[in-house]
Amino acid sequence: MKKTIVLFFLLLNFIGFSQSNFLRVQTIKVINNQQEPMANIPVTIIETLSKQRVSKNTNTKGEVVFNITTGNEWAVNILEMKNCCYIYGIDKGYSTGKNLITYDIEHYKRTHRAKIDRKQFNLIQIDQTKLIDPQHESTTAIVKLKVVKDDDNPLKNFYVNLTSYKLQKIFLGKTNEQGIANFVVPINTEFEVDIDGIESFDYVDTKKSGIYELQFTYQPTDLKEIVINDTISQILPKELKGTSSRVAVKIKVNKLSGNDISKELIYLQMLGTNKIYKGKMDKDGRVSFLLPNKNKYLINFKYQKEVDVLNFSHLRGISNSESTIIYNPDPKLEFPERFVPTPDQLFLKDFREFISKQYPEPTDPIELKLKWANDSINALSKEAVLELRFKIRTANIDLKGDPINISLVVDKSGSMEGDDRIGALKKSLLQFISKLRSKDIVSLIAYDHEATLLVPSQPVGDGKYLKDMIEDIEAGGGTNIYNGMVMGYNQILKKQIPKGTNRLVLLTDGYGADDPLVTIKKSKEYNDKGIELSAIGVGQFYNQALLSQLATTGGGLLNFIGSSKNIASVFQKELTSLLSPCVSDVKIEVEYNDKIIFKQLYGYPFKKVNNNTIQLELNAIYPGLQGIGLLKFDLNNPDKTIEKAPLIIKMTYFDPNQSKYIEKKEKAFLKWLPKEGKIELILEAEQKKAYAIAVLNQGLKVMSENFVANNYSGAIEHIEKVQNNIKEIYPNASDLDVKKLMDEMSQYAIYLKRKINNTLQN
């Protein structure tokens, strides 16, 4: 029987080999710091393009064998050490390979730290370039750094530095005839090794007194660099070749619009540092660099930011790189003096971001609070503003509830490397997954210009599969929201829960190459099948209008966040909304009268129920949510009788704990002051700013709609009306956020007037 099993195994291997044209037998041995084999340790390999995943446990010798018949490059994960090495060189035919990996999590974490921007430090230089026979004391250590070239010959008279962020010092060193740079430095200190201007090339940590001897291979590159502040220009050799220290990079830029591309510059920002490599393109859009390896570079142009990323972080040996980049100049950056946004180009900050006050935990499932911006009026008062706040009681995650079915569809385009959005996203996803229940159903899709199914729809289980694939996400490429969204919806359909929670969570930091109208229409088809959509926009360059429409139609949460540090809190909101019991079907009606006439609501969509009643329907709510709306009313010849004509606010909601609808009523009274002189519309500074931002945002929307309709004079009239309104609220406004929006409006008005003049002349 044993012989039959062996023959069958060999036959399977032969079939796989013959169908794929190659077989790579890769042995991976895992040992600890004591050189002992580590048995029963999970080793996972993931193909970097297809995302195929294979996981096995080591045997008693600490070994595991993979028979690889597909793919060109596989990343290796061992417990917490993710992408700790790569399997390369897979080709046609039969081959074998071996990796000996020391499981040293301390070293792994030390070498995988995010780079620190040194601009935040005032680093003091300590010259140790002339140390010949260094001596150490009980509080110091000697560090001997030997630097050799690719041919193993010593690198002589070469500058090498040790940088300590803790001490805020740079110890300057220089190699001698043996290629050794000597240092005497304090103990209990971490040092970054800098070579040839390359920061954090390696590290040395002096944990105790003694002598630390390290050897590095570094091949100097034949090039001249001109450094002005943080910007580096390179004069390259005629023959461009990579070395062990630098990658030969060739970039072909295809510009979609504009003038001769040879006049354009390209900027490569070394992530985690303040260094920017600048290059000038030739007439064909070609440009070359010799870039320090083991780094990532974010590509920027003058008129388009965070276009893509070059990732050389895991390169080893001599490397060359060729890339083609699409350059699509942003008209707002290229021609700011003649740019007016269309509705889908508007990028507006929610006025609620500027309100910091928190309300106490309500005793009821939901609590409504009403507050006039100034409840006192007189005969000269023309307007009144009512602040409507609600707070939903927090709730714990329901561990025993029905499973949920979600698809996480995340942007991994090159721009996600900006502000370390990709790193923050991965951490947030890992936290999110760890809080789900094993029975919950999850799929994971990452998209750039294409969509990749990382994890098909399945129960979370122990979460290892999901966590491996999250860790494997790397930024790069363009943005195609449509493909990722449709793939996510289809995964949900495969495991759809009738009458349960089925939701797609979409995150992006950019504009998709796809048609927004087509994307919205397609999304609604799936919404009609009972699938919700939540949208998260990150940064400052995403399609805010598209995400708003998708989330509104999809009935999920909508979050816009400026900084990557807020991604985790957004996913926590999403988790709470998915797993915690909450009130639903919340409706708020505002009944007004002929003395207090409704004019505008900022913050929520509304509909008119009759001539004197509007209704707000609060969708996408969750435990702990604090919402706010600002209602503007016109006052019709106010007099003392207005005190007996309050607004009547009615709130209804379904309480799942009582299994019934609850109704509550509140009244909002104004006070009559029989005094002369103008009464201020809004008293509190924070409330005043929030209202001003809300009015300006609404003004920009109306201006934009008029612009698209070619009603330039109507757009100008509305700008002037809004600006006059803001000047009344803020007669001596110095707030930077308000001033910025006012200045934007003024710039748009100048261009619109120019458009009118040009039309008249023609």
Automatic annotation (TrEMBL):
Pfam families per UniProt: VWA
Top-level taxon in the UniProt lineage: Bacteria
Listed Gene3D superfamilies: von Willebrand factor, type A domain
UniProt domain VWFA: residue ranges: 405-579
PANTHER family per the UniProt record, alphabetical: VON WILLEBRAND FACTOR A DOMAIN-CONTAINING PROTEIN 5A (PTHR45737:SF6)
Protein name: von Willebrand factor type A domain-containing protein
